[in-house]
Amino acid sequence: MKYKNILIIMIITILFTGCSASKKDELLNEGKLALEKHEYTKAQELLSQALTADSTNENARSMYIQAVKMKDAAEYEEKKNYDKAIACLEAIENLKGGSSDIKNEASKKKKELIKLNEEYKKAQEERKENAKDISSQGQYKLEQDAIKENQKQEAIKEEEEQKTQEEENNQQNNQSGNTQDGTIQENTGDVIQMPSNQQSQPGQVHQPQQQPQV
């Protein structure tokens, strides 16, 4: 009876272990399939369950890291942060174990992103240079506009000064002419006021002229 109980326990343990191993393998295979289909979130969930069932499974751990890094690399690429995307792909290349298809894909993607990164940085430098040129041209235009405005203001000021000078000269000429006219009138008045030889002096009796004798 004792041996019979032991046998039953062993059978149950073997069956349980077999079922458990089958479940782990299923999770591992499904996780790998999702990973290679680029379903990275689903792959992470399945591989996480596989690691919960067997934390010593290094292949499951490597594939889980592959799923995380591939997902991060895709997000960095979308944001044009090529340096970080390349770093994620290099981490996949250096992993031991995991999906060989994902490793090959990561290597090809890294080469592609290196080229894109070079072109992107070159375009950035060209934009910076163009921005400097535009800024210099804008500054030059501002300086030229300021010079023209100063010249315009100087011309207006000079014109106003010239006009003021002309008005002062005209005023002085008018004053000089008025002074000369006044002298002539005064002199003329003196001539009119001079007594004539034909007029009698005060207190003098007018004598009639004698007729000549015949």
Please characterize this protein's 3D structure.
By secondary structure, this protein is an all-alpha fold. The chain has a domain at 7-128: Serine Threonine Protein Phosphatase 5, Tetratricopeptide repeat, CATH 1.25.40. It is built from 5 helices and no strands. The chain has helices spanning 2-36, 40-53, 58-78, 82-93, 100-193. α2 packs antiparallel against α3. The longest helix has 94 residues, at 100-193. The radius of gyration is 59 Å and the shape is rod-shaped. The N and C termini lie far apart (218 Å). Mean pLDDT is 78; it is low at 11-19 and 183-201.
Give a brief rundown of this model.
With 214 residues, this protein is an all-alpha fold. The protein has 5 helices and no strands.
Helix fraction by DSSP (H/I, runs of at least 4):
over 70%
Distance between the termini: 218 Å
As a whole number of angstroms, the C-alpha radius of gyration is 59 Å
Q: What is the helix/strand order?
A: HHHHH
How confident overall, as mean pLDDT?
A: 78
Anisotropy-based shape: rod-shaped
Helix count from the secondary structure assignment: 5
CATH domain topology of the domain at 7-128: Serine Threonine Protein Phosphatase 5, Tetratricopeptide repeat
What is the β-strand count?
A: 0
Largest sheet: none
| Percent in strands | under 5%
The CATH class of the domain at 7-128: Mainly Alpha
List keywords for this structure.
single chain, 214 residues, mainly alpha, Serine Threonine Protein Phosphatase 5, Tetratricopeptide repeat, 82% helix
